[in-house]
Amino acid sequence: MRRIMFTVMSLLIVGSMVFSNLTPLTAQAEAITMTPLWAENFDYGSTLGNLTTVSAGTWVNHSGTAGFVTYDPAAGLSMPGYGSSGVGGAATIAASGAEDVNRGFTNQTSGTVYVATLVEVSAAGAGAYFLHLKDAGTFNFRARVFAKSDAGILRFGLGDTSTGTYSTANFSFNTTYLLVIKFDTTTGNTALYVLDSVSTTEPTTPLLSMSGTAQAVEAVAIRQASGGPTAIIDGVRVANTWEDAIGSSASGGSFTIAKSAPATVDISDVFTYTLVATNATGAVRNSVVITDSLPLSVTVGTISDGGTATGNVVSWDVASLADGASVTRTVQVTA
């Protein structure tokens, strides 16, 4: 019987013998990623237009029929270390606008929801809210973020209703800030953080905090109103942890994947790759995706735990993985 020897990242044919790029016992799988509930990079091409139109219904209107929220391919914002920085364009709003839009995510009926976004305000009036969470209706709005001009100084505010409480902290117009909303769906407790650089851990003290109305939420909304800001909004991320919303971690830890397979197999043998993914990031991770690229010389067979294959790339979704915990996934292949 002819034998197949495993080497790393090589594909060489000598006569009828194939040295495949199948990995040995000590090799690592290709990738493991943490994903938020969703991330909006406003990457909708090169044409300026109404956000609901260019996004093909990803963003939908829930109020107003004129003065549309605009997609601007040249207005994208960036901040070093942020998970959705410098990709695509951005949404732009104006105090003269009238349309309000939202993008949905999986309904969150318990626990904490974080919304992170880059915001640059160029002008503001007496004050109005421009960003909030909502349920499936058009009135149950939570965690409303406000902006106003106070004698030429930008102030941010927070509210559970159309009346907000403003911070006395000074912020600057035409400056990119990272805004993070923290909303507890079970208690209604709400906090707002406004940062001029990425903090990979949740700050001890928010800019503003308040008790609010407990409610399930399933969408982020962008609002335009008289007295509100003219602003750029970009890189919106929704998650259940601070680190997943920010898209980075300061713990010094990481995910690891140990991948194992037989040292040698015969041609046409069926054998199994085993992948063990371990969370050593220092925090619970939600919406984890494990991905591995298999060599083209094998035929993918049974994939464990609901995994899927696109060609020879296999992946698994893991809803939640506690710090220090591991999951095992397998894929059966034919040599």
| Residues in helices, as a percent range | under 10%
Radius of gyration: 24 Å
Give the rounded overall mean pLDDT.
Answer: 86
Secondary-structure element pattern, one letter each = EEEEEEHEEEEEEEEEEEEEEHEEEEEEEE
Major beta sheet summary: 9 strands, antiparallel
- According to DSSP, the number of beta strands is 28
Assembly type: single chain
| N-end to C-end Cα span | 13 Å
Instruction: Assign the structural class, choosing from mainly alpha, mainly beta, alpha/beta, alpha+beta, or little secondary structure.
Output: mainly beta
How many alpha or pi helices? 2
Mass-distribution shape: elongated
DSSP strand content:
over 45%
Poorly predicted segments: 1-30
Descriptive account of the structure:
This protein is mainly β. The chain is 3% helix and 50% strand. The chain has 2 helices and 28 strands. It has helices at 51-54, 242-246, and strands at residues 3-5, 12-14, 17-19, 31-34, 38-40, 49-50, 60-63, 70-72, 90-93, 100-108, 112-124, 128-134, 141-150, 153-159, 165-166, 176-184, 190-195, 208-210, 217-222, 229-239, 255-260, 264-266, 270-279, 285-293, 299-303, 308-310, 313-321, 326-334. Strands 5, 6, 8, 9, 11, 16, 17, 18 and 20 form a 9-stranded antiparallel beta sheet that branches. Strands 7-10-19-12-13-14-15 form a 7-stranded antiparallel beta sheet, with no helix packed on it. Strands 4-24-27-26 form a 4-stranded antiparallel beta sheet, with no helix packed on it. It is elongated and about 75 Å long. The model is unreliable at 1-30 (pLDDT under 50).
